[in-house]
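Shipment paperwork, digital attachment
Item: protein structure file
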Amino acid sequence: MWIFCCGMIRSGSTLQYQIASELVEELAVGRRMGGVNENIFNSLLKSHKETRDLAVIKCHWFFDKAGELIKEGEAKGIYIYRDIRDVVVSMMKHTDRSFTRLLMGRLVEKVLRSYRQWQGSGKILVSRYEDMVLDRSGEVMRIANHMGLTIDKPMADTIADKYSIEKQKERIRNLDYQSIYRRHKRRNAPDEHSFLKSNHIQSGKTGEWRSALKWYESAMIEQIAHRWLVENGYPISQSWTRRQLMGALYYLILRPAGFLGQTMIKVLKFIRIRLWK
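Attachment content:
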């Protein structure tokens, strides 16, 4: 059976992947398969068609085949989400991109669309980042139960301690970056086993958006994701007037500008390819 650790980007999905992988390997019922996109998974699906072991996969964005397998009972999903404002702040630090650039790329809309698609797939374990931070051991138990595995609390505590933030940071410091670069031929690629990379962990704090975002940035996100924030119990910080104003700025200027910019890049790439041919 396939286990998709498919949580929201910058929300603790790597930790879920590590926990799920640790469980199946410790109990000798499966193994970790690394990160995939739709094309990579289709190749894996052909080569591992007959396996009955639990195959743990890391991904973020929803794709149809994963949804089909979950609905058919041939796969399970493990999902985690966090305050979308903290997602944006973490992405700004992780990618060294500005707020404007991320919003022009429709980050918030893409994240929420994938959230809804995974939620509609069926057997999905859904966790809240803010809760997992407070009870990592409980998260281990929840993941084990979802995968149909039986463990006791001492084992859950041991795994939870193994993946504390302090020990994760130590793993990052001890990664063999030269070896990783030789294998992947690109900088800041993730380690194949832990799926960690050099700047993987930022602060790990919740509610960091309150000090990191300007009022107009918070207002813009809150307008785009207002319904989702309210449904998931996250407080709205900006007034209706401010949200409407910044929402108009986003939908009339930033969003179209992002689309035009991406279209222009595609056109330039196409021209370049044609010229090289």
